[in-house]
Amino acid sequence: MVAKAVEPSAGSHSARKRRTQTALVAPARGATTTPPPHFEPIALWAKVCSETAPNVCRMSTNASTGSAPGAHRRRLARSTAIFAGATGVSRLLGLVREMVAAYLFGVSGLINAFTVAFQIPNLVRALVADAALSGAFVPVFSELLESGDRRRAWRVAATIFWIVLLGLGALSAILVLVAGLLIAPFGDPGGDPALATGLARVLFPIVVLLGLSGIVVGILNVHDHFTVPALAPVAWNVVIIGGLAAGVPLVDGQQAELYVYAGSILAATAVQLVLPLPWLRGLDGRIRPVLDWRDPAVRRFFALMLPVTLTLGLVNVNATIGMLIASRLIDPELAPAAIDKAFRLYMLPQGIFSVAVATVLFPALARLAARGEIVGLRRSVDEGLRLIGFLLVPASAVSALLALPIVRLTYERGAFSADDTVVVAACLSAFSAGLVFNGWMLLLNRGFYALQANWPPTAVALGAVALNTALALALYPVGPWGIPLATSLTNIAGFVVLLALLRRRAGPGAQGAALGSLARVVAATLVATGIAGALWWILDDVAGRSLGAQLLSLGLALTVGTGVYVSLCRAFGLRELGVLRALRP
User: Fold this and answer.
1) 339: burial class by Cβ within 10 Å (0-12, 13-18, 19+)?
2) What are residue 171's phi and psi, to 5 degrees?
3) Where are the alpha helices (DSSP H) in 476-510?
4) How far is 322 from 39, CA to CA, in rounded Å?
């Protein structure tokens, strides 16, 4: 048999290497090597589209229409505002969901069995579904579309969809059968390991549902449709809240109530998958019943997925290890649920800001990488890092300093006691120390995935697991808050290493400007947070602890603090403040 000689594909290593070398010494056609004279990151994603890929940004008009660049920016800025708004609504509804659950179940006793039962499917989901699939799928699908081979792109997408359905469906069935073995290492969560096993069996099918959802969302994101995928989690939270409100009064006993909670999550995940499906019809392809697993692009997807799976999954491995230590070595009837409740609050600004930036920017980064425009990719990552810092540095400071009133206002009612508030607030403060660093890591990982260089983040994630485990074992004697503190310290170390690796691959970028911007953000944050904390302390002492008084004292403190921060950023001349202007209609 004679081997057939083939020209290296657009996605081959040699081709990518040649494009990268070319991009580093000369700009791609139509690209600029420095930002325009009046460039502001007032619409980071609009800038990426209008300067580097106007023909593939569906949320802006085609280049042939002759629309002005300003119109492109305003249109995409409004789309970004819709996406961020939908994400914000989803996170707020998630907060309402957690408030309802805290009212019904508190953080002591059987709710810890539910927390552990949900942690295991969530870990499997992170390893083989959802974001792991999207992280590998988006670069491959984008590259095929950029090459002009749309028919092949959709055939590959359909093949991956059906492989995921068959593979994860079988995996979910196996996990249901062995659920008891997976719960056993956690010891006696909530004092009822049998309940934890039963709840895990109800929850394991979310793995296949979220796997399919990852492919659907990836297709829509590549076509720059972000709003509907952002609204799907809104429906997810609504279904769960409705399930708890309607189902809990119909059953007797907390065990039955927790099964209602688990069943509501399963139903909500099915809704999350189904909701975006109609929007696939408006695209230029279909998910047809085909299994073309011999296509090199399919094999490349799975080759890329392995390191992405390890990278994203290992983050959840850290959470699972923390949960294991909390259940085994701290308090199986308090620590797991307390850490989880703090984590939900920690994820609120994370989901609204850094996840939004990374999600919207990722397809544009993949297109830039596919074109070999490494300078544009590096500049876009730098702007994304600055934007995340602008948003999350003050958020982390506020959630650390005002953790106690935030937790009290959010959770302290029903089965959630004042003593529980103290424990959860300490965990929230510890999580907050690493908030901005985790947000930066999300974007840096996307930069590597766009370059189809997926192993460096994997190596960092493996190191993070070892470091997090060592720190958690060293810090757990201080109490439940030692586990999130270990997570924060690990996030700081992981960010430093990832940034150094990406700088080595894509160039140093404008480090001086970035550090100057960060210094001004930190200065504004220190002043604004200090004023907000002092104002809350005064109002809390004067107004008291009624619900209305808590809303007044915390709300006014946050409002004044935000106003001070914005004013100082304007006085310091921070360009990132322009994002707020761009998001106005």
Assistant:
1) buried
2) -60, -45
3) 482-506
4) 44
> pLDDT by residue (tens digit) across 242-265?
999 999 999 999 999 999 999 999
Q: Say yes or no to pLDDT of 573 above 50.
A: yes
Domain that holds residue 502: 71-509
Distance CA 212, CA 168 (A): 9
506/485 Cα distance (integer angstroms): 32
Token pair for 218: 């990836």
Instruction: Give CA 152 to chain center in angstroms.
Output: 30
Give me the number of domains the chain comprises: 1
The predicted model gives 492-505 an average pLDDT of 91
What predicted TM-score, i.e. pTM, was given to this entire model? Answer: 0.75
Number of other CB atoms surrounding residue 423 within 10 Å: 24
Distance of CA 342 to the CA centre of its chain: 16
Question: What is the SS3 assignment for 76-125?
Answer: HHHHHHHHHHHHHHHHHHHHHHHHHHHHHHCCCCCHHHHHHHHHHHHHHH
Burial per residue of 26-53, b for 16 or more beta-carbon CB atoms within 10 angstroms, e otherwise: eebeebeeeeeeeebbbbbbbbbbbbbb
- Both tokens of 196, joined, read 């934890």
Written as one string, the DSSP assignment of 340-351 is HHHHHHHHHHII
Residue 411 lies in a domain: yes
In a domain, residue 539? The reply is no
Q: Is residue 568 part of a domain?
A: no
Among the ranges given (118-122, 144-148, 203-207, 281-285), the one the predictor scored with the smallest mean pLDDT: 281-285
Give the separation between CA 69 and CA 343, rounded to whole angstroms: 41
540 falls within a domain: no
Identify the H or E element spanning 32.
none
- Give me the chain's average pLDDT, please: 82
